[in-house]
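Inputs:
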Amino acid sequence: MSSVGFNGKRMIHPIPSGTRDVLPEETREVRAITDTLRGVFERHEYGEVYTPALEYESVLARADLAEVQPSYRVFDESGAVLVLRSDMTVPIARVVATRYGSSEPPLRFCYFAHCYRGVRPQRGQPRELLQAGIELIGSPAPQGTAEALTVLCHALDATGLKDYRIGVGDASLFPALMASLKVPAPARPGLLEALARRDFVGLEHRLLEAGLEPQDAELLLGVPQRRGGPEVLTGAPAPAVEAVTGMRLVHELLEPAVAERVIFDLGLVRNIGYYTGAVFEVYDPALGGPLGGGGRYDDLLGRFGRRLPAVGFALDVDRLHVALAGEERGTGALLANEASR
Amino acid sequence: MSPGNGLTIAVPRGALFAGTVDLLAGLGFDTEELRANDRKLLFEDIGVITMRPSDVPTYVEAGAADLGVTGKDVLLEQAAQRPGEGGREVYELLDLGYGRCTMVLASKAGPDPALEALRRLGVMRVATKYPRIAARYMEETGRQAEIVEVKGSVELAPLTGVVEAIIDLTATGTTLRENNLIVREEIVVCTARLIANPVAHKLKAASIDDLLERLRGLPATGVV
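Outputs:
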């Protein structure tokens, strides 16, 4: 591919939008971050793995990836469909089932790997993103969740990120709320989808359409908007008690430095289908969106033939890099709008 | 604490401006300079930045503003049209009720030229400033359409024979009537919405919730 540029000069050898070349100055900075993260992961006894970027579509399809479906497909020599992986959690679930079929849990893995996602044009979204993360297999809630959050905070602290917070929610909370309030089954996917988009106006309209009792609708609209310190865990309505108790148990296991980073968010829903319990997202005021996230996926391993509870997180290394640079300069996203006041 | 709780709010210029400024005044903001100066963009004393409505989600998504006001039409146009396609990552917190308009499909009065084109040629041409909404609506209603994106007065396109129909936002229908166009289909009702940056929604939860509470308590703004 080649084309003629605006000034009449030939522009040569383009690369696909959403991909880029990383040159030495940036590579040095990114490498410093990944080396730091790797040191923390290894100190916590997470062993690094590599898996192929290409996998069989039929194998990855065992997981419910929802919004992060693989976007790139090719045929191999025999006509089988291969996909470029869209995350590392599913490949590691496959590795555990096939290579660690009889190993004594818990198993701890970490990775630094490129994943591939579809993009919308002209939004600067990456097709290829570098993820750094861990998977803790065979350690149930609340201990496993607390360990993952602890490693996450230790890793971010080690990179020098100062003002980050971790939003913690529970993927089972809203479905449990809908079930116990007898929301008609056909209305449930739409309500969950509106919540996942954080379209609270749409959620309210759909609740009205579903013909619920006013106090039930108010609960379904109000509970997911509760977020803040441990105080949001008190006074939860009965159907949410199980999820909220789970969050409190995790909170009790956290060391103080980790606990004070946590924001409990009863409306947190991640757009990946395989999460079953605790879910989390990492925020920093230097960035307008999350720079990583994770959660529990207690059913995923079973789909690959080894039933084990599991939890993990992935950080977007480039976004972490942007947040670190923004904090350093005091200019990122929400920092800039505060500085201008 | 200041009326804006230290939050930065993106305010749309244009049709939603007056309603939004009234809303801010109702919350106790000093809006005198905002009303008086229509060239200034940044009003740092009260934490307001002004821009065209379609830019509001851009600034809110980036975190340059914690909150913003824009039309549902803008949000629909910029939203993901199908799962997996990243739309603007902003939270929609409140239907503010004002700025009520309807997205409609309209064509020239008399026998519907769009119907005729569809019947005889199997495809209709539709001019719009909202190409993504238009494409999605035509797809959802199972009709072949060629979407013609225009930036200026959409009404001109059917009058000059460039297209058989338009998809556009109308409040009173006056402009359509003056150009001899009639509404054939109503697509969606759009009002002003309060949106939030996802990170600000967590890190500034107390300030945002307090503002929401006070907004809901305002009597005559039509907040739904």
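Remarks. The interface with chain B takes residues 66-69, 71, 118-120, 123, 125, 165, 167, 197-202, 204, 225, 227-228, 263, 265, 283-285, 287-290, 332-334, 336-338, 340-341 of chain A (CB under 8 Å). The longest strand of chain A covers residues 107-116.
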